[in-house]
Amino acid sequence: MTPPDAPHNRWSDLDRPPLNVTALRRGLLRPDALWSELEVVETTGSTNSDLAERARSGGPAEGTVLVAEEQTAGRGRLERSWTAPPRSGLFFSVYLEPGDVPVERWGWVPLLAGVAAATGLAKSAGVDTALKWPNDLLVTVEGEERKAGGILGEFAGDGIVVGLGINVSLRADELPAPTAGSLALAGAVSTDRETLLRAVLRSLEHWYGEWKAADGDASASGLQAAYTAGCATLDRTVRAELPGGNSLVGQAVAIDGDGRLVLSTEGGLQQPVSAGDIVHLRGAAGGLT
User: Fold this and answer.
1) Beta strand 89-96 with 270-273: parallel, antiparallel or unpaired?
2) What DSSP string runs through 236-257?
3) pLDDT tens, position by position, 6-16
4) Angle between the N-to-C axes of helices 193-213 and 108-125, in degrees from 0 to 180, rounded to the nearest 10
5) What is the pTM of this model?
6) Are 200 and 90 contacting, i.e. CB atoms less than 8 angstroms apart?
7) pLDDT of residue 73
8) Which of 117, 120, 233, 253 has the most CB atoms around its CB within 10 Å?
């Protein structure tokens, strides 16, 4: 085993081999595919920041994928940091240009990425992956729901950059918080990052194609139904911590056509929430979560 103070190199953890960019390109970059370019870098601050900067300066083509073996300044929602040991997860961003899809429907793209990641990981890792609205990926570790991944979308240039961070092989002593988890800790049948990355990107290509073909209509494309089916937030009592410091407590009853979480509050009022941090208070059976 490598001493903890030894310098990092590509073979410093043989349980976490580097990604094979040639194999990934061969499997994903096809003339008829969405993915047009794939780059793997050893380390960067944030793949989202890097790709967004390229987009603002005129650059990348739609379907560009930027993957980092390590992120030193990864960003989550609400400007939270996202860090993990080198090669312990999937840290990547994609650039998409929805084009003729009405811009008011672009807010579905991060939710679409969540559906794609959850379905892709369920097939390739054999782990039941659920969605916490709006953009968290949940797995079950020792009977408890844990966050194993997150998604961040931001407008840039003529399109949108969507970043995904997924904990793959993190061990219990490497978790950043007690509420965190990883695919390995959830009993994944495979933690091969190339297999998982290909599965997620192919799933993302499928759902993005369906959504664009329906002109961004989440209902017609099946996206709204798929997100609803995989959303662990629904049928729970939750607290929505809203921008500005306000909060709202209610039962999560639906995902509406705009991708908002609908809460049923006291007095029978139904309140859509478009942005905020969601805390699961009680499950459908009444247990604390």
Assistant:
1) unpaired
2) SEEEEE-TTS-EEEEEEEEE-T
3) 444 544 466 89
4) 140
5) 0.91
6) yes
7) 79
8) 117
CB contact set of 48 (below 8 Å; sequence gap of 6+)? 74, 75, 93, 152, 154, 161, 163
Whether residue 135 contacts residue 182, with contact meaning beta carbons closer than 8 Å, is answered with no
Per the omega criterion (within 30 degrees of 0), is the bond before 134 cis?
Answer: yes
Query: Which positions ≥6 away from 180 have C-beta within 8 Å?
Result: 146, 147, 148, 167, 170
Phi, psi angles (nearest 5°) of residue 205: -60, -45
Q: Are 112 and 207 in contact (CB under 8 A)?
A: yes
What tokens were used for 180? 């965190």
What is the average per-residue pLDDT within 204-218? 98
Helices 21-28 and 193-213 pack at an angle, to 10 degrees, of 30
Rounded Cα gap, residues 194 and 11, in angstroms: 17
How far apart are alpha carbons 137 and 220 in whole angstroms? 24
Q: Is the dihedral angle over the CA atoms 52, 46, 33, 227 positive or is it negative?
A: negative
pLDDT computed for residue 14 by the predictor:
65
| Rounded-to-integer distance, Cα 203 and Cα 78, Å | 26
Q: Which amino acid is at 83?
A: T
What is the Cα–Cα distance from 145 to 126, expressed in whole angstroms?
16
**Residues 75, 135, 237, 123, CA torsion sign:** negative
How, if at all, do strands 64-68 and 37-41 pair?
Answer: parallel
Amino acid 74: pLDDT? 61
Whether the pLDDT of residue 57 is over 60: the answer is yes
